[in-house]
Amino acid sequence: MMTETGGTERGAERTLPPWWVVLLVALAVAAVAFAIGRFSTFGIAGSTPAEGSADAGFARDMQVHHAQAVDMAMTIYAETDDEHLRALSYDIATGQSSQRGEMFDWLVRWGLPQYSDQPMAWMAASGSGHAHGVASIAPQSDDEVRAAMGMASDEEMSALHDATGQEADCMFLSLMIRHHEGAIPMADAVLELGSDERVRVFAENMKKGQTFEIQAMTSMQQRLGCS
Questions:
Q1: What are the pLDDT digits (tens) for 65-104?
Q2: Which pLDDT tens digit goes with each residue over 3-54?
Q3: Helices first, then strands: H and E counts in the chain
Q4: Of the candidates 133, 177, 160, which has an alpha carbon nearest to the alpha carbon of residue 79?
Q5: What are phi and psi of 8, to 5 degrees?
Q6: Are 148 and 55 in contact (CB under 8 A)?
Q7: Rounded to whole angstroms, what are the CA distances from 71 to 26, 39, 54, 155, 216?
Q8: Which residue in 39, 98, 115, 133 has the fewest CB atoms around it within 10 Å?
Q9: CA separation for the pair 124, 131 (Å, rounded)
């Protein structure tokens, strides 16, 4: 229900995230700043990723992947009454928004477009596509691509936006766990196929972070009694 100020009744009662979430976000921002400072010293020493490279494909597809995660996280942040879930969703939304900006900047610096008409094709570039959940480099439908990435369907997103209370909490946790599980093979693929050291460090850190968040969300499911 909207208030006269355009916010939600739940939103008017929001509290600041717990101190440890603020710390995590601060550490994440510091890590990004460190990485930017560190790799800016590389200059043009390495070869620039080309069109069709794993580095470029990862940057494009992971931006799309992160965009939906931010949408889901902001949705549950506004809806949930659970302090720990609100804290986690805040961390996901802010962290992945920052990462999207970093990946966007890579493509700008490489002189490459932000989008491709063959998403996920880069994961099969070495012939090991089956190991990363991609059967071939043939074009796929939007639904097939989203399913391969672990992303929610349009129907699932609509259901999440409409849900309330424990149903919303549990639905978010289920969708976001699957979402993170879809991102990890993408990180593994660029670690195997990529050539840019910045991308490799980013993917390794992202994989560690999302693995930790999967564990945290699984514990929340148990605590909340999600079926």
A1: 999 999 999 999 999 999 999 999 999 999 999 999 999 9
A2: 444 444 444 444 444 434 444 444 444 444 444 444 443 444 457 999 999 9
A3: 8, 0
A4: 160
A5: -105, 160
A6: no
A7: 21, 30, 26, 14, 19
A8: 115
A9: 9
pTM of structure: 0.77
Q: Which of 70-74, 126-130, 217-221 has the lowest mean pLDDT?
A: 126-130
Place of tokens 């514990």: 219
Tokens representing residue 71 in the block: 């949408």
Tokens 């936006």 -> residue:
161
Q: How far apart are CA 104 and CA 32, in angstroms?
A: 14
Q: How far apart are CA 175 and CA 205, in angstroms?
A: 22
Segment holding 102, helix H or strand E: helix 83-110
Residue linked to tokens 């490279």:
53
CB 75 within 8 A of CB 66: no
Give residue for tokens 């008017």. Answer: 12
